[in-house]
Write a structure and sequence with these properties.
- The chain is mostly beta strands.
- It has one domain (about 1-65).
- About 15% of the residues lie in helices and about 35% in strands.
- The protein is built from one helix and five strands; from the N terminus they run E-H-E-E-E-E.
- The strands form two sheets. The protein has a three-stranded antiparallel β-sheet, covered by helices on one side.
- A hairpin with an 8-residue loop joins strand 3 and strand 4 (about 50-60).
- The protein is globular and about 30 Å long.
- The model has no long low-confidence stretch (mean pLDDT about 95).
Length: about 70
């Protein structure tokens, strides 16, 4: 899954969450993504090569916690 905001690094993602930013996620393609539970995030967005990956807990399509 991707975050709606295109974070260049995992550190930037964590900093935004710590600052209280609402981070929404989505699954590109024809299949619907999860809206609740644990997901894998990747960035930056395609077509740039993915340089970071993170596990996150989401609720209602919004990141609650970065797990790793």
């Amino acid at each position: 899954m991707y975050t709606v905001t295109n974070y260049p690094t995992k550190k930037a993602l964590k900093a935004a969450l710590a600052a209280g930013t609402t981070i929404e996620v989505y699954q590109p393609g024809p299949f619907p993504g999860k809206t609740d539970g644990d997901v894998s995030l990747e960035g930056p967005h395609y077509p740039k090569p993915h340089t970071w990956y993170a596990r996150a807990r989401i609720k209602g399509g919004v990141v609650e916690k970065i797990l790793g």
